[in-house]
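Researcher: Final request for today, and then I'll write up notes for the group meeting. The sequence and the SMILES for zinc ion follow.
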Amino acid sequence: MLDREFFLGFIKIHILYHASKEPIFGVEIADELARHGYRVSPGTLYPTLHRLEKEGYLESFSKVVNGRVRKYYQATARGKLVMEQSKKKIRELVTEVIEEK
Ligand SMILES: [Zn+2]
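Model: Predicted protein-zinc ion complex:
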């Protein structure tokens, strides 16, 4: 499905953005994405987080919260670099696609 492919790019950038600000966990990022209108199932979200980690953009750590182990993800130096590069691309894209300049 092609639209899924496009949205996955937006979702990944979104995850990377929040993970470069502070550590995030699965349910929290799912809620945040939902707030932006992306309905992401756990079957899409978790493999995406794992892939970003495997590719070196995110790193994870576990923390016990209310007696349960919660897995947090944060951007690595490489992830932050890609985020900075993406910002330039996003700005350029907005200028053309939204502002039609
Ligand atoms: Zn957001």
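Model: The domain at 2-98 is CATH 1.10.10.10 (Arc Repressor Mutant, subunit A). The CA atoms of residues 38 and 80 lie 23 Å apart.
Researcher: Thanks, that's everything.
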